[in-house]
Q: What sequence folds into this?
């Protein structure tokens, strides 16, 4: 009996090592989008946190680092436009990763960009940033480009020649790539996600989590509570809040068990994925945790099985819509376009016909003479409806699986007008474009491939370059000959390093196991910003709240608060404040900065300099700051069943200017 091929659906621990290439492709897209969402959310705070005009100048962070090991390309940026340029570079890497172009290269660059983006302001980063970095690291060992990528499309076009429309028949297409990937990195990615969940549960061991009051305390954090959370805090009964609190606490453990089950893996993972979405949506609706939600959700596509994909394909085929695409067979760029569309048509919904092959036209279908010299024609074979020019491509994209957003975009009124104009320009110049691209067009033959001389490389040069160089060359050739083995070795070392760091960093681990981390592991983990300490809201949620405000006196005698004007969404308060407003609506980064800055004296000078630049931000000379007091308000959140905070404490943690009266 031949051995059973590896598959993620087979029972036992071996299933942990396998993943469907379609899951890798979808996971790559999800990872790229998550990184883009994270980057986009930081855009409004670029000057505030990524330039020397903000609250955390690069020289201050480098001279007074919060952690001993830091790496970030953003330390090179001092001015806002320099940071904006690096943001653009990061965005380019993330977009290119999402579409799967030169995927291996941009996997590495995206990891470096992600680590740099987070390490620049690691003092106020949350655990979502660590989760995104860990996901980038684990996927570095996996072939993310095998499906749903530009690289896969290009490889398919190069691997199979098409000479006529008949070659584009779906029946002649090679079988789709569904061979599973087997790697230790698959298990590492799963264990990374499970470890996060288990430690989130285990480290939250305090009485508030066990008695169900934890969510009540969290909803009284004015810095991070959302509008829905503020409503739930007032409208939901204590028993319902208690049930939600226990769900938030217990769900991570149940999800980890479902994902790690060695039997019934398909349905267990489906339940685990559904429970994860519910858990994340509940927390995200109530509390603003920054990039945490997108980081957790970005893991989920990698846990889809082959059976999930087969059932999804069967469902899509039941909703089959077929379109005839009739094109000019003599046009090189037209034929190249339909070859590309054929590669994207994984469900075989498009049937391509050349205008030269009249015998293949369905009965009753007539095309006006000369029409296909101007435009592609898309026909619904059931209703006979037709689409031309840019509308034809919009209908093609609506038919292709996964491309419906592009179809909607092309049908927007202004976009449609521009798309029709571009299409007409291309159609008019199709012969010139085809020739320029080296394609046959309207009797013009294709440009012959240029012959490139290649020189054979022998071992004479390396043998004569010295013993040390010869040894290094031999080692390099040995490594290049065994890339798969080297990836597995690196994945094993990564798994070991992260496991040791997790044992050392989490309070739930017994003390005897927390001293096993060697200095080299601490160094590597530190520079990568990948500390495996998962202690959010541990062991107890905060039972008090905190707010920072600045009572600044301007040169024209007004009192202003530059701090909350930059980061909070509260109404213009009467200064000085005496209590914390019900909701501040701050970003996660700004909220964490406000929580930490009163007690971190090393960053107070940067805070002073930022406040004094208030007129530069407003552009009004009258906003020059004559003096200011930076206040912190702490209070005790109301216990369950009550609504008014108590024990309000106010103090000035920083003063600048004339002595206060």
A:
């Amino acid at each position: 009996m031949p051995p059973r091929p590896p598959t993620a659906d087979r029972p036992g621990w071996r299933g942990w090592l396998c993943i469907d290439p379609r899951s890798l492709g979808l996971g790559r897209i999800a990872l790229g989008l998550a990184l883009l969402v994270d980057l986009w959310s930081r855009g409004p705070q670029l000057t505030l946190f990524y330039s020397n005009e903000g609250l955390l100048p690069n020289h201050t962070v480098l001279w007074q680092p919060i952690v001993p090991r830091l790496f970030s390309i953003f330390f090179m940026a001092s001015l806002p436009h320099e940071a904006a340029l690096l943001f653009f570079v990061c965005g380019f890497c993330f977009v290119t990763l999402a579409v799967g172009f030169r995927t291996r290269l941009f996997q590495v660059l995206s990891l470096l960009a992600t680590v740099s983006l987070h390490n620049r302001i690691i003092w106020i980063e949350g655990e979502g940033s660590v989760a995104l970095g860990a996901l980038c690291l684990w996927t570095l060992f996996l072939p993310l480009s095998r499906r749903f990528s530009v690289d896969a499309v290009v490889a398919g076009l190069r691997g199979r020649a098409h000479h006529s429309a008949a070659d584009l028949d779906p029946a002649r297409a090679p079988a789709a790539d569904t061979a599973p990937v087997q790697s230790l990195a698959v298990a590492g990615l799963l264990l990374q996600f499970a470890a996060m969940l288990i430690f989130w549960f285990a480290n939250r061991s305090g009485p508030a989590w066990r008695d169900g009051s934890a969510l009540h305390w969290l909803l009284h954090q004015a810095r991070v509570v959302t509008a829905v959370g503020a409503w739930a805090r007032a409208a939901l009964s204590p028993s319902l809040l208690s049930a939600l609190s226990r769900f938030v606490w217990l769900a991570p453990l149940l999800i980890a068990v479902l994902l790690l089950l060695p039997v019934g893996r398909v349905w267990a993972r489906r339940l685990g994925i559904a429970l994860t979405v519910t858990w994340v949506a509940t927390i995200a609706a109530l509390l603003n945790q920054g990039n945490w939600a997108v980081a957790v959700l970005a893991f989920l596509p990698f846990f889809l099985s082959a059976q999930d994909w087969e059932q999804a394909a069967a469902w899509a085929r039941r909703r089959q819509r077929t379109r005839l695409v009739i094109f000019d067979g003599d046009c090189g760029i037209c034929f190249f376009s339909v070859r590309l569309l054929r590669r994207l048509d994984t469900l075989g919904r498009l049937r391509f016909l050349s205008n030269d092959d009249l015998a293949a036209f369905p009965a009753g279908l007539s095309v006006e003479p000369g029409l296909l010299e101007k435009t592609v024609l898309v026909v619904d074979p059931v209703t006979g409806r037709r689409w031309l020019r840019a509308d034809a491509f919009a209908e093609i994209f609506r038919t292709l699986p996964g491309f419906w957003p592009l179809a909607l975009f092309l049908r927007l009124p202004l976009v449609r007008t521009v798309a029709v104009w571009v299409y007409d320009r291309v159609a008019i110049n199709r012969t010139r474009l085809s020739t320029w691209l080296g394609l046959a067009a309207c009797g013009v033959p294709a440009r012959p491939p240029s012959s490139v001389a290649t020189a054979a490389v022998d071992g004479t040069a390396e043998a004569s370059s010295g013993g040390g160089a010869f040894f290094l060359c031999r080692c390099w050739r040995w490594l290049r000959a065994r890339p798969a083995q080297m990836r597995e070795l690196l994945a094993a070392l990564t798994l070991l390093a992260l496991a040791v760091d997790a044992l050392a960093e989490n309070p739930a681990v017994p003390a005897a196991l927390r001293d096993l981390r060697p200095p080299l592991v601490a160094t590597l983990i530190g520079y990568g910003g990948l500390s495996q300490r998962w202690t959010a809201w541990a062991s107890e949620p905060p039972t008090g709240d905190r707010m920072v405000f600045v009572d600044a006196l301007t040169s024209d005698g007004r009192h202003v608060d530059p701090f909350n004007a930059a980061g909070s969404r509260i109404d213009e308060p009467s200064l000085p404040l005496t209590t914390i407003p019900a909701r501040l609506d701050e970003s996660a980064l700004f909220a964490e900065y406000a929580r930490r800055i009163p007690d971190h004296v090393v960053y107070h000078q940067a805070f002073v300099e930022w406040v004094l630049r208030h007129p530069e931000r407003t552009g009004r000379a009258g906003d020059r700051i004559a003096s200011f007091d930076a206040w912190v308000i702490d209070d005790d959140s109301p216990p369950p069943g009550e609504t008014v905070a108590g024990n309000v404490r106010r103090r000035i943690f920083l003063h600048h200017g004339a002595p206060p009266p």
Q: What stands out?
A: The two ends are 92 Å apart (CA to CA). Confidence is low (pLDDT under 50) at residues 449-466. Strands lie at 18-19, 181-182, 323-327, 350-354, 377-379, 386-388, 544-554, 559-560, 625-636, 646-656. The chain has 28 helices and ten strands.
